[in-house]
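Slide 14.
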Amino acid sequence: MNILNTIVARKKEEVKIQKQKINIDDLQKKDLFERSTLSLRQFLLDEKRTGIIAEYKRKSPSKGIINDHASVETVTAAYSQHASGMSVLTDTDFFGGHINDLLKARFNQVPILRKDFMIDEYQIVEAKAIGADVILLIAACLSPGQVQQFASFAKKLGLEVLLEIHSEDELIHICDEVDFIGVNNRNLKTFAVDINTSLQLIHKIPTNKPAIAESGISDVNTIVTLRNAGFSGFLIGENFMKQPNPMIAFADFVEQLKAKLV
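Slide 15: predicted structure.
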């Protein structure tokens, strides 16, 4: 069993337990469930911002602990100054996250992506209830039919949908209901990273779906290359979080990027 299958199997157990703790009706009574969401699409089009979707992540299955001391409030406040969006990991067992991390980040007035392995509509309702603006659907662990079903459900709740693909075979998962297409340069089955994955797939993505490059971005020149290729967004997590001070690392990266784009 590869790591993705292991994560999905565990996620099914987690969702079953969570449903017993709090039902959908109670989730829908949460204050944040009635909140008007922010549009990542609009923020990506804002020329005053960078196109970066900056991630808060404590650990990963491939790297272990990345940063277990920087607070979500401090890091995301710094991100919010220039990022087009933020991604917050809510998976506990494999990434050290929690839904409370997203709740703590919600004071920021930028779109927040709930980064998790979505395998049940319950998680989508939960995402809305904890203040997310965007959900992630991963083609590698969902059928095309499930992607369409979950995306349609999310849209009814006012959430935007990022569909993540890793290969040309997964292009069949793209449907009208998803808002963005993310190309993850990290193979979730082997965790190998190759930025060429994005460059090879960008021309096969519908032009009406903003493309977001994910993983393996640690240099401003890579963003320039990806931007020139047609990408609108750049999801960066580990690069900032692995630094002693993610806030300073992010600010320095933004300054370097702005200098390149002048």
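Speaker note: The mean pLDDT is 95.
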